[in-house]
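Supplementary Methods, section 5.1.

A reviewer requested that the exact input to the structure prediction be made available. We therefore reproduce it here, unchanged from the version used in the analyses.
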Amino acid sequence: MNTLRSVLVVLAVVGASEALAKDVTPCAGVVSKTVAVDGRNDEWTATGIKVKAGDLVVLMADGKVKVGNWTGDVGPNGAADGNGKLTIKVGTGTVISVGQKWFGVFEEDAGPLKLRVQDTNYRDNSGSFKVVIIVIPGGAIPEPEVVEAG
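The structure derived from this sequence is encoded token-by-token as follows.
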């Protein structure tokens, strides 16, 4: 059942993405925002979005960040050592590596959604990621109906 629900959620997200690309208002309660995440910022970038427990969050990122002189330019998936990778956090919750495309449900965490580029030395970085964030309220995703074969 979780697989079926995941498929339904992905279809809903694709539909929401297409609606946003066509300047159509998505379902009530769905939030969509584009945020720039500066590779030099060692603090969390506030998105202005508050996530509630059970909300589905979808991220799609692009752009390049130069992570120091040794690593060089990387996309949102970062380098092999993890530096330069896009990360997310809700409130004071756990830091999650997300990369270029990610979706997930925050079962317990609630609070402001924040983004950051993973690194240990931000002074020699440059560039930024453009991140499209879509939040679908947990209550807007129906449980799949079970249909018995026969």
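The chain has one domain: 27-140. These observations are discussed further in the main text.
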